[in-house]
Amino acid sequence: MSRPLLLNAFDMMVPVHQSPGLWRHPEAGVARFDTLEYWTSLARTLEDGGFASLFLADIPGVYDVYGGGTEATARGGVQYPLLDPLVAVPAMAAATERLGFGVTASVTYEAPYLLARTFATLDHFTRGRVAWNVVTSYQDSAARNLGMDRQIPHDERYDRADEYMEVMYKLLEGSFEPGAVPADPATGVFVDPDLAHPVGHEGTWFSVPGHALTHPGPQGTPLLFQAGASKRGQQFAVDHAEAIFFIGNTPQLVRRWTDGVRAGLAERGRAEDAVKTFTMATVVVAETDAEAQARLAGYRRHVDIEGALSLFGGWTGVDLAGADPDAPLEYVATDANQSALAAFTSLSPDRTWTVRDLAEFVAIGGRGPVIAGAPGTVADELERWREEAGVDGFNISAAVRPADLERFTTMVSPELRRRGLLPEPGSVPAGQTLREVLTGAGPRLADDHRGASFRR
Amino acid sequence: MSRPLLLNAFDMMVPVHQSPGLWRHPEAGVARFDTLEYWTSLARTLEDGGFASLFLADIPGVYDVYGGGTEATARGGVQYPLLDPLVAVPAMAAATERLGFGVTASVTYEAPYLLARTFATLDHFTRGRVAWNVVTSYQDSAARNLGMDRQIPHDERYDRADEYMEVMYKLLEGSFEPGAVPADPATGVFVDPDLAHPVGHEGTWFSVPGHALTHPGPQGTPLLFQAGASKRGQQFAVDHAEAIFFIGNTPQLVRRWTDGVRAGLAERGRAEDAVKTFTMATVVVAETDAEAQARLAGYRRHVDIEGALSLFGGWTGVDLAGADPDAPLEYVATDANQSALAAFTSLSPDRTWTVRDLAEFVAIGGRGPVIAGAPGTVADELERWREEAGVDGFNISAAVRPADLERFTTMVSPELRRRGLLPEPGSVPAGQTLREVLTGAGPRLADDHRGASFRR
């Protein structure tokens, strides 16, 4: 087989993840997102389609920038209502044998002592198929509802996150040595006290003196995912992550980021391929290129402009409520918002962008590419992106959910298999951990990973 | 059918819940407690046996009183390692159709904004089969690992817990009105902004201004369980609980408590039967009374004395390490510990209690009765207890796990069904919420419940 293409589905337990309005498409089934069956069925589909994992975003707040409120967010179901992804993982694992589950959890709002237990439990119950997407959270609205006046300042959040990771490593790597849980009726020893240790953490932000509540699962620390795009976030990623996710609209933009990551890894003394790199792609597939383009044009008719601007507002802090949808963006740009707008419009600097253009752009594809075409065209584009952007794989996003992911698995996956880019069904043995599937090593953290230094 | 007997299984995601040493019994299977299959299989067993729910205890700490450390706790697997029960619930729900799941979560260590989302998600994913056992937590070791120097003082914990409940009610009852989530493609409205409200909570302990992250499941607030035994705890229970759990070794002791609860309910203007009452029983069943007694005697040979004293230390704060196991307890009693000892020894004041006697007493049955006998004897005893103690049902505890619960379902459940005390298999329609099954009303909180006043 050629170097395999790694695929995660990029999703969220919400009516609208990245495509405001598309839940109204006749083929959409996502109004049932609040049933367990929706997610176990999706998990089975993805496993059959050769996906490595289902990657679930999460934010502990409700977007309230657009119009200074939540009306457009509510009406459009824009990442609201938002279910707790952690509790769905074991049920999805029970419905599958190989698929991994990447779950977002914030180091800002969960106590490390309890979060370490939750991830260890998930690693046991999935037999090593869980990843943690480490985020520091970015919404003032979340901070206010979680007992803070406002967010912790950005760089300080990451300093605190570094210490948080240290606590997690101590709990997941250092508290139970290998062999600490003989559970042997003959000797009567369930946990060997000589191999189970209090972590004794006393730091700037956290004090955790005691023993981890539970022994780690097959992976120890779950596979670590990170998506920080800022300079400090990227530094955090090269220090901790095993897989990184970055969204960009051109392969060149993503390539600048992957090059930066590899340089950062070299600086830190980690191997250049110590981290798997992913970028996002929204795929619209049909039998022919023309049909796919027609399908995409149909999608655009379902876009919810206000919902898209609510999402845009949440991402950028820029409130475009009240702006004429057909006004050119240059007339609504202010000193405060022009850099946020430019991040989008600079991708096609020659055209005149209206507010509506921006919303449609956000609503289909978000900040990443839209690949629309026949299966062969989609596979060509994914291969081209992989080469030009220098990534190991993709977080595949669906505009119409879950239909676009189902279509991917029945139309694109077979084509990728023909090209030797995806494993044949049944060729991946069950029982591998997600770390082994994604990195080719494991099941525990690599010896040169920072977390490994907390082993005894 | 006679007034049905309500049964919950009382368990915990640990090697040893209440019976130190019994994991070494040849019929025990609990060394596999860290696999999901252990729990989904147990759930199916309980459902087949007519249990209303699986009630899962939890403590966010490791017992460290005995010998001033965790050695005996570790060796004996005494509520350690301890998995996260919340994440197992949807998988167990997917394996069953009717069984409820009561999960313990502490109001001391989880942010209400996030815990409300977790329980709402569980209520969606179980279709209304989740209960919340509200605890305030009692271990200094937990407090230290969760960023506090020590516990919040007892009565203050309950004042804070009252406000916590208010925040939960606002999030689960007040933020989304009925009909707030039309999810209607025709109108394009997923959430009706006029029916979704910020909760605007600003109190002594909590500030939660915003909208609940998700809409509530079929029950709204999950069924509320509580087990506070102190005077302030009992006051909290009559204010909030719909089901209460109390452990006592004699029906008379439990009757004093149920009478107290009913008086408290009357004082608060709630119906005397507004709260279902449960007490714990450990059941050892066999074909004949003699075989059951022989089985029980065999269990005693597996008791882990140090493990039992570690559990006793965790419950009472009394450290009996170093005491001669065969010394009469009166010689190890000090001013500080004699009331804790008396709580146990006063049940049989005429015999001389040794440290070993106490440990064996703790290890089989804990603080509740052990009912050992043929199916008819067990059923008689459960009926007698129900009458004399004035309870609605039992939290059934197993010494040998999961074997004793399996034996209960195959031997005692048929006998209870013959007596019309348990519903016949298949006679309970699927699709009922746990609130409906346990209280006969619902699916939402009763209108005279405090939580209902936070609806709009």
TrEMBL record, chains A, B:
FMN binds at D58, T104, H154, Y158, S230. It comes from the Bacteria. Keywords: Flavoprotein, FMN, Monooxygenase, Oxidoreductase. One of its GO terms (molecular function) is monooxygenase activity. Residues 25-392 form the Luciferase-like domain. Residues 419-456 are annotated as: Disordered. InterPro entries: Diverse_substr_monoxygenases, Luciferase-like_dom, Luciferase-like_sf, NTA_MOA. The keyword Oxidoreductase applies. Residues 445-456 have a biased composition (Basic and acidic residues). Gene3D superfamilies: Luciferase-like domain. Belongs to the NtaA/SnaA/DszA monooxygenase family. This is N5,N10-methylene tetrahydromethanopterin reductase.
